[in-house]
Amino acid sequence: MSFKLFRRGSARCIGILSAFVTILLCLYYICIGQPNSTHIAESQTLSLHLGRGPNSPAEALSSFNGSASPVLQFQHREPEPYTVDSWGDKCYVLLQSNTNITALEEHSKFDFQPEWMRSKEYWDRGFEERYEAQKKDKQRPPLKVIVVPHSHNDPGWLKTFFNYFQSDSRQILNLLVTKMQEYKDMTFIWSEISFLQLWWDQAHPTKQRALKRLVNSGRIEITTGGWVMTDEANVHIYPMLDQLIEGHQWLKNNLNITPKVGWSIDPFGHGSTVPYLLSGSNFEGAIIQRIHYAWKQWFARQQSGDFIWIPYWLSAKNQGRLLTHNMPFDIYSIKGSCGPHPSICLNFDFRKIPGEYTEYSLKAQYITDENVEEKAQLLLEQYARTASLFPHNVALIPVGDDFRYNKEREVDQQYHNYKKLISHITANKRLYNVDIAFGTPSDYFQAIRERMGADHAFPSFKGDFFVYSDIFSEGRPAYWSGYFTTRPFYKLLSSELEHNLRAAEILFTIAYNTARQSRHEDAIKIYEKNYELIIHARRNLGLFQHHDAITGTSKAAVMRDYAMRLFESTQNMVKMQEASMELLLQSHKSHEHGFLLSEFERDSFNKLPRKMPLQLIRNPTSDEAPTSNPTSAGKDGEASFVLYNALAQKRIEIVTLRVQQPNVRVLNEQGVELKSIQINPVWNISDAYEQGLSGLPPVDTGSTSTGRIHISTRQFEVMFVAELEPLSLTTYRVQVDEFNYKRNIAIVYCDDCATKMNSDHAPGPTAPPAPDKAIQFEIRAKPAGDIQLENAKMRLLFDEKSGFLKTITRKKANSQLLQPMQCAIKFAAYRSAQFHSGAYLFKTDPEQSEAEKDVLEQYVDVRIIITSGPIASDVTVIYGPFLAHSVRIFNTRSHLDAAIYLENDIDFEPPPKNRETELFMRLLTNIDNIAPASLQRNPLNQPVESSSVPELPVFYSDQNGFQYHERIKVPAIGIEGNYFPITSGAFLQDERLRLTLLTTHAQGAASYEPGQLEVMLDRRTLYDDYRGMGEGVVDSRFTRHKFWLLVEDMPPGQQGIRPPKYKVLSLQAQQLANELRYPPNLYFLNNFEQPQPIALQTLVRLLPHGAFPCDVHLTTLRTLSDPQLQLFPSASALLVLHRQGYDCTVAAHQVDISNFCPLVRRGLGAVRFGELQLERIETTSLTGLTFQKKSQRLHTLAKINLEPMEMRTLNITFRGEL
């Protein structure tokens, strides 16, 4: 009876049921909303200790600005599955997406030594039998062939970008616009907008119009449309998206088109970030090429080479899905792509240029009336075999190679011969039953969708295609994992420009529109004039994301050309920040310029930036009355500087500043003296530099390492804790302190360091007075035994001989020690296999009994230096000129105290030193990061005893600073196949602990043994690896590598959860990663040369309504170019937001970052940039292009809803004059 009542759906029954469900939901949310709060009272003194020495001078940090410090609270949160309405105030859990194919699972089952390897062709009897059976299948649709002429143009590789343009790319584009008007059915594709823009600016208007007609007709298709064909392993999400925006905006402004298909055929392995970005740009599909040879065979066997690539995490909005086509054969040349048999495909590359002698020019025969039938039959057999690898029987056939169609003769040869073949096949359709024509990738995706129906007919795939391996060179596996680390100096240079460009973009957008709305005519002229520098910086950064640039796989001369571009744009972006900050710091009535100066001096691209000392001005006319302006630098013994926080969250930052005397104090923006600062010694200041600074005569100190590492008496480092508001400019002051500075002087523990301390000369007339000897650093002998550093959160133990970290012991709230955790740091190197390990490839030397070598044993002069002070303590160990390694912990009463800062200075010295060396840093822990048995697949699908299951370590590597992928060791392929790219971090974990390592730049990482995590630091290989570059990697430079190391607690009962969680960083680790990549920029106030003191604001909040939510990252605020005058800025800007997913169940012991970044807001709230008034907000694609059906006008940013991991772009237009 009750069943019938409910089935009828009476009003009474529905009401009762609704009330019942409502009560249950209320009870549920009441239960999960009750926090389990515990208040932890911290001790008043947070001193740092050395194991065998007396306590270092420390003082409680009651606050950073003198006010009371909040009591930390710890809350246990139960995660919930994410829903669209969750935003900012809930602890959510990210789940893995459900797919037909999971890369991690399938990859572990592969046979990496197949029988067909020596022949280099996977096409075997099984494929042939299936092909023959398909020919007899009357239900199978007829063969359809789309022939796509193309030319792959590298913006730099063996030649520089401009030299390639001059010698090849310009001629290719000129030939296309002329020949394609003659050949009415010929098609072509173009990808690299960097070359297209250069050609467009020099082309005659008639050629520009011809290109527009060809593009609008669909005969020339612009594929991907990025500034370059980006690398997918080493590139961070910011420049990856920025170069795509730059290309798409240029195409929209000049050709009025929007690309729809991705073409990524040469990056060395493919990640899942590019498909996400292309999907967010409303692409219809993408084409990839270079994946592991075992994947090639697997996709062919499964007929799954067309698949829907979806993100690893479960998206409530089904975002990031993209139809992807894997080119089924080795390479994109005609030889490697027409079919499974390269020897036959060689017959159909018709390029024959006088003076060129190649395998195809010797073998190919032109098509004539006599041989057209024979050649057509031979070619169709290859095309049909290619199409047999797909259920839809459509074959996409690229016809081209690197810099092809650069000769008029070749254009004629390729077109006429293929035209004869196509015409013959079409004329004999009853005989062949084949539909064949010139076409584009868009034609291919349209054809397969017509035959397959909806996208759900394609299999779904999650994961990526790293590490790429080929076999076509030698018939044995060659793993392309060396380029993850090759030439780290250039990778760091790219990160530096990325940081400064992003900082300048945000400042410029706010400053320029502030000038417009306040009618600041002089500032408007300056910004409009200098906007072109931002355009060049975007393009130079984008150019370096090319898959032969940031990878380090171009010739040395080409790499230097890239570096010059990066260096020049970095200089310009620093100046742009200065000009923008000068306007924002002044009141509306002030119009001064040129009073800000970067703390860094950059001499040339091949040297690290050098910190300049802040000069405390001693005015000789000191009888003048001091000004009351707090930012004036004209007082005796005083100077000011500005810190720019480019993140949209509040941050606590350890700031270091160079000064010329140690007796100083620091005042914050309110004029309150900071309670605790630290004065550290400055090391490794060369005598020549010191003499140049002070005007002293040169002194011969010899070349001993003792002289090399002596303490400078003319520069000192001031360290303090800065609490910076979100997106803000904060002014600090440094003053001479004659009385209390001694408590801030750090103590140095070092043997043989005191010998150089008193080798001073009389100060020159322009140098600051030498400080009294009483204020020199106290240097004590290093105590015997192991070294110990300690703060309120942990105790570190270091080996007394090597100076390297051994264990970490964390503390409870009452300072009681927990169980020590092994966390030893080791530096060693792999021996490179000559001719098999180079710029691209990584392979250890098989002729050596041990793959690793002790690279430090050659340096007998080892120095250990310990520095201890009220804010930080560190251990630095120096192995000659080769390595300087520092470990530092902090005492700030913030979340930073739970993290460990690492810094490595690496100098390989000139060759032949350290030849065939692949240097790594390894962390050896007792974390049991063994993959669960369910993930350790047995290739034979046979049951095995649990005791015989190998212990395969698993770790998680980031991809492009955007997402994380699980990595499980595959023993069959060696260390070279188990190295993976990281750009911001990696972590390993077990049921108890998680160890996270965060970095500043791209490098390779691995966990080859349980409990171990290693990162490659630098490589030197004297020999070429035969992948085209033609030279080894011997141009190593001095590099500085920075890391954060974090140990966190795992929640109990997380193993075996179904559905499985998607693993990401904790909130604290994510914050540290952002802060490491985008540190605050420091600028000196240089206004002592101004005739009158400038009235400046000491705190400028560029987000006056408060910070963004904790997990929402302001990727960029990028001014758009005026569509008509493209070298001038418009009133519109692209706001790119990224809600970085995080795991709220993972946290450092006794640390709750939500006290610093509380999760209490719903959404973005009332966002405002400075005092700017908005005219409109419009939703766009990720690259800022609008679509009539999908675009939406918004009244406020509070309406935006971002799900975790989501990226979103909005077009914001600011009002004009107010």
From TrEMBL:
Q: Which GO terms describe its molecular function?
A: carbohydrate binding; mannosyl-oligosaccharide 1,3-1,6-alpha-mannosidase activity; metal ion binding
The region annotated as signal peptide is none
- Cofactor(s) needed for function: Zn(2+)
Identify the residues that the record assigns to the Glycoside hydrolase family 38 central domain, covering every copy: 478-566
Q: Where is the composition biased (Polar residues)?
A: 618-632
> Which Gene Ontology CC terms are recorded?
Golgi membrane
The UniProt keywords, alphabetically, are: Glycosidase, Hydrolase, Membrane, Metal-binding, Transmembrane, Transmembrane helix, Zinc
Cofactor binding remark: Binds 1 zinc ion per subunit.
Q: Does Protein transport appear among the keywords? A: no
E.C. designation(s): 3.2.1.-
A GO biological process held by the record: mannose metabolic process
Q: Which Pfam families match?
A: Alpha-mann_mid (PF09261), Glyco_hydro_38C (PF07748), Glyco_hydro_38N (PF01074)
Output the InterPro entries linked to this UniProt entry. Answer: Gal_mutarotase_sf_dom, Glyco_hydro/deAcase_b/a-brl, Glyco_hydro_38_C, Glyco_hydro_38_cen, Glyco_hydro_38_cen_sf, Glyco_hydro_38_N, Glyco_hydro_38_N_sf, Glyco_hydro_57/38_cen_sf
Which reaction(s) does its UniProt entry say it catalyses? N(4)-{beta-D-GlcNAc-(1->2)-alpha-D-Man-(1->3)-[alpha-D-Man-(1->3)-[alpha-D-Man-(1->6)]-alpha-D-Man-(1->6)]-beta-D-Man-(1->4)-beta-D-GlcNAc-(1->4)-beta-D-GlcNAc}-L-asparaginyl-[protein] + 2 H2O = 2 alpha-D-mannopyranose + an N(4)-{beta-D-GlcNAc-(1->2)-alpha-D-Man-(1->3)-[alpha-D-Man-(1->6)]-beta-D-Man-(1->4)-beta-D-GlcNAc-(1->4)-beta-D-GlcNAc}-L-asparaginyl-[protein]
**Region annotation Disordered: where it falls in the sequence:** 617-636
Q: Which residues cross the membrane?
A: 12-30
Protein family membership: Belongs to the glycosyl hydrolase 38 family.
Q: Whom does it interact with, and what assembly results?
A: Homodimer; disulfide-linked.
Report the protein's function.
Answer: Catalyzes the first committed step in the biosynthesis of complex N-glycans. It controls conversion of high mannose to complex N-glycans; the final hydrolytic step in the N-glycan maturation pathway.
Q: What protein name applies here?
A: Alpha-mannosidase
Organism listed in the record: Drosophila busckii (Fruit fly)
